[in-house]
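A.,

Following up on our hallway conversation. Structure tokens first:
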């Protein structure tokens, strides 16, 4: 067993593969039935009449970060009629650092906000569930490496 572990570590060093980076870039690690979202800041379709954008308020680092979501109609008007839930976890250690689904808070400016606790370097996933009138419209996740 020790020989196998040593060989694996040697292979990672020789081929310059960082395991966390490899996992974060792998969409197959995303939660089942969740769409892998494009990079932050891009418009993401949300049903036939809406789109949303998302991003961290500041570049994420160890500690607390805030995920922001803004929802708009196709015409560009802000819409706050959705319920947005989210969670953050490490796909390679699923459940070890999950906070569980929490509702995003809605700010006075109409921005949905979720505090995210990033406790260690590695691959991370923020999941989003968008609901309107009690029906789930989209389940998506953002994979990144810290």
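Then the amino acids I'd put at each of the 146 positions:
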């Amino acid at each position: 067993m020790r020989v196998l572990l040593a060989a694996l570590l040697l292979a990672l060093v020789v081929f310059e593969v960082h395991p966390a980076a490899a996992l974060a870039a792998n969409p197959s690690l995303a939660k089942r039935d969740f769409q892998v979202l494009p990079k932050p800041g891009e418009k993401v379709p949300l049903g036939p009449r809406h789109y949303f954008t998302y991003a961290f308020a500041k570049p994420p680092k160890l500690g607390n970060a805030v995920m922001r979501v803004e929802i708009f109609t196709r015409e560009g008007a802000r819409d706050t009629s959705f319920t947005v839930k989210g969670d953050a976890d490490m796909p390679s250690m699923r459940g070890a650092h999950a906070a569980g689904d929490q509702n995003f808070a809605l700010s006075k400016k109409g921005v949905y906000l979720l505090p995210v606790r990033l406790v260690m370097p590695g691959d991370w996933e923020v999941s989003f569930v968008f609901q309107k009138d009690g029906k789930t419209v989209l389940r998506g996740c953002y994979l990144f490496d810290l």
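Helices lie at 2-14, 19-24. Curious whether your intuition agrees with the design.

B.
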